[in-house]
Amino acid sequence: MTRTFSPDALIRTENFIGGQWVPATDGKRFAVTDPATGEIIAEVADSHAADARAATDAAAAALPAWRDTLPKARAEILRRWHALIVANQDALGALISREQGKPLAEGRGEVAYGASYVAWFAEEATRIYGDLIPPQQHGKRMSAVKEPIGIVAAITPWNFPLAMIARKIAPALAAGCTVIGKPAEDTPLTASALVLLAHEAGVPPGVLNLVTASRERGIDAVADWLHDGRVRKITFTGSTAVGKYLARESAGTLKKLSLELGGNAPFIVFDDADLDAAVAGLLAAKFRNGGQTCVCPNRVYVQAGVYERFAALLAERVGALKVGPASDSATQIGPMINARAVDKIARHVDDALTHGARLVTGGKRITELGPNFYTPTVLADANSSMQLCDEETFGPIVPLFRFEREEQAIEAANATPYGLASYFYSNDMKRIERVSRALEAGLVGINEGAISSEAAPFGGVKESGYGREGSKYGLDDYLSIKYLCQGNLA
């Protein structure tokens, strides 16, 4: 029978190293708070370089046996882990909502989404094939085999504290790698709960290790991994600035990197689009997790002929969104993660209004609910001089830009160093073909706002990073190819 836990029983406050829950080596701790109220949920281990090195030591000791474990056996452990995640969906969802702030329904949805990656890579574990290369000379046999890359360091963000680490750990374990992980300082409890369930599923000691750390000490901990030659891969989701730092600092040991970085996603509505469908798609894409997702639209381009009608339809739907704490089952938009996030949102709105934007709905803090709430907002008459055109807002703000011709929309959509996600709505099949090819992004939603799936490759181009997560391609980032040449056979 699959074991179930209450949300409180899932909470672990220590590091998980070598199959044991252990405090930081110097005993330091930091507080994890509820973003809706500011109340302390728990105090967890505040790790530094010595703890990171201990995690690497454990992963290195466990690597040979795990690498040699049959893929079928690794897959069975992943299946048990998946079953435990699904059985504890309600408890995990409640924990996510408490420490991250997203509504309860979204917390439960994230659990299902993260679990889907574990199930997917449990299947992919048994499908790591090599190739026989056609002979080029008599007496020689050539082949290519895929092997686990080694120790993987996974560094994850706060906005999807379960899904982001699950879709990094699952392929690494499936490939035969061992893992050292560090979750974001705002949301370490969910990651620790996920590791607890992995241990319950039978992941051997040292194969999966997790250290938690505050912002300042976390830099020290990660730096140890970047400079340790035993760590062969870094997988990171977060800002472009941090991704570039990781790439620079790990260059000395030439690690393999998977970087899923910042975005500035365009959302284009052409005048032949189904406007009701476009509004629904924008709501799904933009307001999930209160706009705190890397693939949410940051710039909405609407063709002039339907601009005002679209703005009115959107404002009506956005103005009706229910804002509140995750503990309220009616909540659709929860708190932002912290005060810094709210300050940035307010700064972007104020700057837009100063540069000619028209406030259609929202545009204010909701201090009566708590310290980190902001109204879902629609701004019309946005232009390229505004900060929100170039910077990712990461909040429930929709700026509407007007355009006349298809070429203008594509040029504006691509006028950014980022290239993670993009979206457009049109019922013209020829236009769909043209625009989908012209957009510079790793993910393109065509008449669809919900585009993520464990079966699809997730990742960006340009300064949104490289590497892919999920799908059959996602396993390749955790494998290296070895060429074997056997001679003197004739």
UniProtKB/TrEMBL annotation:
Q: What single Pfam family name could you report for this chain, choosing any that match?
A: Aldedh
Q: Which Gene3D superfamilies match?
A: Aldehyde Dehydrogenase, Chain A, domain 1 (3.40.605.10), Aldehyde Dehydrogenase, Chain A, domain 2 (3.40.309.10)
Domain named Aldehyde dehydrogenase is located at 21-483
- Keyword Oxidoreductase among UniProt keywords: yes
GO molecular function terms here? succinate-semialdehyde dehydrogenase (NAD+) activity
Gene Ontology annotations of biological process type:
gamma-aminobutyric acid catabolic process
- Taxonomically, the superkingdom here is Bacteria
The protein's UniProt keywords, in alphabetical order, are: Oxidoreductase
InterPro entries from the UniProt entry: Ald_DH/histidinol_DH, Ald_DH_C, Ald_DH_CS_CYS, Ald_DH_CS_GLU, Ald_DH_N, Aldehyde_DH_dom, Aldehyde_DH_Superfamily
Q: Can you tell me which residues form the catalytic site?
A: E260
- For this protein, the Enzyme Commission number is 1.2.1.16
Whether Cytoplasm counts among this entry's keywords is no
What family is reported?
A: Belongs to the aldehyde dehydrogenase family.
Q: What is this protein called?
A: Succinate-semialdehyde dehydrogenase (NADP(+))
Query: What lineage does UniProt assign to this protein's organism?
Result: Bacteria, Pseudomonadati, Pseudomonadota, Betaproteobacteria, Burkholderiales
